[in-house]
């Protein structure tokens, strides 16, 4: 993991076409602007984690329900 320190209005470049800009630092909150091509998905980490957990839970429930349904048919 690369760890950098940046001040307001400083940037970080990722490849040729992604730029992160520190917009504001207020207490323990940092506002970041991201410039990237439209084909690049940008998602908050906690959102991805929540979706992953929900999908895992749904698969578990589906497998459990499927097992119950197949037992009833026998």
From TrEMBL:
Keyword Chloroplast: no
Tree of life domain: Bacteria
GO cellular component annotations of the record: cytosol
InterPro entries membership: CsrA, CsrA_sf
GO MF terms held by the record: mRNA 5'-UTR binding
Sections of the chain in a coiled coil: none
Protein location: Cytoplasm
Keywords annotated in UniProt: Bacterial flagellum biogenesis, Cytoplasm, Repressor, RNA-binding, Translation regulation
Main location: cytoplasm
GO biological process per UniProt: bacterial-type flagellum organization; mRNA catabolic process; negative regulation of translational initiation; regulation of bacterial-type flagellum assembly; regulation of carbohydrate metabolic process
Family: Belongs to the CsrA/RsmA family.
Subunit record text: Homodimer; the beta-strands of each monomer intercalate to form a hydrophobic core, while the alpha-helices form wings that extend away from the core.
Function (record text): A translational regulator that binds mRNA to regulate translation initiation and/or mRNA stability. Usually binds in the 5'-UTR at or near the Shine-Dalgarno sequence preventing ribosome-binding, thus repressing translation. Its main target seems to be the major flagellin gene, while its function is anatagonized by FliW.
Protein name listed in UniProt: Translational regulator CsrA
Origin organism lineage: Bacteria, Bacillati, Bacillota, Bacilli, Bacillales
Gene, per the UniProt record: csrA
